[in-house]
Amino acid sequence: MTRKTADCRKYPSESNCTLTITGEEDEVLRAATEHAVSVHQHEDSPELREQIRGMLEDAPQGT
């Protein structure tokens, strides 16, 4: 299974967040959603989860 990455550095934010999350897709989606809610004050919703899922990228091999 291909590991996925969510990288806050690729998206502008007021906090200039530098967090990168890498793991299996479901793990990254869960952690990135929790991060978006707790740090970036987004509301947890199915729409947010789908938006985050769409932003995930394949992690470089070996990470």
Automatic annotation (TrEMBL):
InterPro entries: DUF1059 (IPR009409). This is DUF1059 domain-containing protein. It comes from Streptomyces luteosporeus.
